[in-house]
Each structure stands twice: as C-alpha cells, then as structure tokens.
C-alpha cells in the first residue's frame, strides 16, 4: 500500500489549513448537509443560485483533511457554473477519484481538482473526497436535506 502521506500534497494542506469560502451564506437559495459516518466527516453546502447558475457557494463542516480540502476546492470550482456544468464536473471528478478504467477525466483539464487523483488508491478516502460533491448535488436537486454516504 502506498504511503498515505502521498495524498497530502501542498494544495490539499493549504486548503485544509485555510479553507476557502468557509462560512454560512446568509442569502443562500439552496443548502444541504452531508455525512460520511465511516470517517466522521460532516459538511453543509450553501448555494446562491441565479436561475440555473451558481453565483456563490460556501461550506461549513468538520472532518478529515481530504474532506475539508475537497469541499474548499469544490466551492471554488463550481462558482459561476451552471447546474449542468457543475454536475458534469462532479462526474469527471468522480471518475478521477475512483480511478475507473478508461475514465475520460484528463487531470490536466480538472485544474486543482487533479490533486485528488491519488485518492483512487484509497477506497475509503473516495467517500471523504466526494462528500462535498454529493452534498452539492443534493442542494442542486433540492432532494434530501441530509445526504448520508453508505
Ligand atoms: Zn474523511
């Protein structure tokens, strides 16, 4: 098994120590909570939508470095995107972190999200890295208020 420390690259550490958009959104139009009981990660994602476009995104929560940094980078990545663009980005990010054979996700086009590529070697960490995204999807779809990863 590869050393877990390989996951903790500079970008991940930076976003763990100084998470971006780490606050509640007073004028949020959508919100959802996520739960990853396996690791104890919890996240709340806030969105401000203008029609179909995400004009602002933020989060709050507690959890491991992977879950926190992933949520931080996610909020940066989806700002300004439409719902469809954000969901497409999640699909590609998910392919990257699950290491699907023949995945179309080219890390180079994923920007900062590519730092999570190493997560694919650690199946339990996939849930940590994807929690914020599943929660985002729930907020976008306005389905359940709480997402719990099985
Ligand atoms: Zn975790």
Question: How many domain modules?
Answer: 1
β-strand number: 4
Estimate the helix proportion, in percent.
25-40%
Number of helices: 4
Encode the helix/strand succession as letters. Answer: HEEEHHHE
Q: What form results from the Cα inertia axes?
A: globular
Biggest sheet details: 4 strands, mixed
User: What ligands does this structure carry?
Assistant: zinc ion
The third-level CATH topology is Sufe protein. Chain: A
The value of Rg in angstroms is: 14 Å
Unreliable spans: none
Structural class: alpha+beta
Could you give the order of strands across the largest sheet?
A: 3-2-1-4
CATH arch. level architecture: Alpha-Beta Complex
Query: pLDDT average, as an integer?
Result: 88
Sheet-strand content, in percent, reads: 15-25%
**CATH level-1 class:** Alpha Beta
Distance between the termini: 24 Å
Description of the structure:
There is one protein chain. By secondary structure, the protein is α+β, with helices and mostly antiparallel strands. It has a single domain, classed as Sufe protein. Chain: A (Alpha-Beta Complex). It is 38% helix and 20% strand. It contains four helices and four strands; from the N terminus they run H-E-E-E-H-H-H-E. It has a four-stranded mixed beta sheet with strand order 3-2-1-4, with helices on one face. Strand 2 and strand 3 form a beta hairpin. Helix 1 crosses helix 2 (65-78) and helix 3 (83-98) runs antiparallel to helix 4 (123-141). The protein is globular and about 40 Å long. Zinc ion binds next to helix 2.
